[in-house]
Backbone:
């Protein structure tokens, strides 16, 4: 996290002069150094999963309250959140003459200079990103025509605490599962969210057998509108994916139902069922699967 840093000119949070290679990510931050600048010889920088909060470029014509980029080589910003930053040009990101590719990123509620500010030599290409609520504008200037295409939106990200710097997403956020579908999934297995703080939708599935009936029970997934019960007989789910990869959809139940039962195969060692539950969203598309359970590996077929 880059928080509460000050610069007298450009780049309140992070200033990248791009000539060589570096990676800035959650596990590699060199600390909250207000003078953090990439050393000479830096290029092909990727900034991943970072929060830029309340940074301030003081310069009267300064660029980039959160992040300032200049130089001839592109910087990639992926899965970051910029909030409460301030600069004359680009409260979130400023480009005096730099090049940036941004994806899965939220730039919201920065307090001066708009979301992205650039000089004539600057270039910004965005996809699957949300620019919203920034003082002095969101999709402005040369990026105005990117709003509404390539997954880009301008909607309130419904942060847990935009005013207090709590950049977690809340359950109604339009930034959940709307990152690049080709990006690495979130740790819960769902499609990538926008921003640095993913919204956890994981849920758990357990199985018990009572009186010859197998009972599935699962915890709720916070955005599920329905649950799909999948089963496969005599074969585990190898490398499960979402959707038609599951051979047998046995039932669909509403989000208020968290159990399902079957006696199929119980007590029969030759017929063994595996199950999992898929949480599905309001749009009727799968969100993520539960862990898998099976009667085969529970010795329930043993008299
Ligand atoms: Ca997600
Ligand atoms: Ca069985």
Residues:
């Amino acid at each position: 996290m880059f928080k509460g840093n000050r610069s007298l000119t450009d780049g309140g949070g992070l200033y990248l002069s791009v000539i060589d290679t570096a990676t800035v990510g959650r596990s590699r931050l060199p600390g909250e150094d207000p003078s953090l600048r990439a050393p000479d010889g830096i290029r092909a920088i990727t900034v991943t999963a970072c929060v830029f909060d309340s940074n301030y470029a003081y310069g009267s014509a300064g660029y980039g309250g959160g992040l300032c980029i200049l130089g001839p080589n592109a910087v990639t910003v992926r899965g970051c959140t910029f909030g409460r930053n301030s600069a004359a040009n680009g409260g979130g990101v400023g480009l005096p003459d730099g090049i940036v590719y941004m994806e899965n990123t939220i730039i919201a509620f920065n307090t001066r200079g708009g979301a992205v500010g650039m000089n004539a030599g600057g270039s910004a290409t965005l996809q699957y990103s949300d620019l919203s609520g920034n003082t002095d504008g969101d999709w402005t200037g040369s990026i105005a025509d990117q709003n509404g295409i390539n997954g880009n939106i301008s909607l309130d990200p419904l942060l847990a605490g935009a005013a207090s710097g709590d950049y977690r997403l809340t359950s109604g956020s339009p930034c959940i599962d709307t990152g690049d579908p080709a990006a690495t999934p979130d740790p819960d297995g769902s499609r990538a969210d926008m921003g640095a703080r993913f919204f956890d939708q994981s849920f758990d599935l357990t199985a018990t057998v009572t009186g010859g009936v197998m009972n599935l029970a699962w915890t709720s997934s916070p955005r599920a509108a329905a649950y799909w019960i999948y089963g496969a007989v005599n074969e585990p789910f190898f490398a499960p994916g979402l959707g038609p990869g599951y051979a047998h959809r046995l039932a669909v139940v509403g989000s208020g139902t968290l159990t399902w039962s079957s006696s199929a195969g119980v007590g029969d060692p030759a017929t063994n069922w595996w199950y999992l539950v898929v949480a599905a969203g309001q749009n009727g598309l799968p969100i993520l699967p539960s862990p898998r359970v099976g009667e085969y590996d529970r010795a329930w077929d043993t008299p």
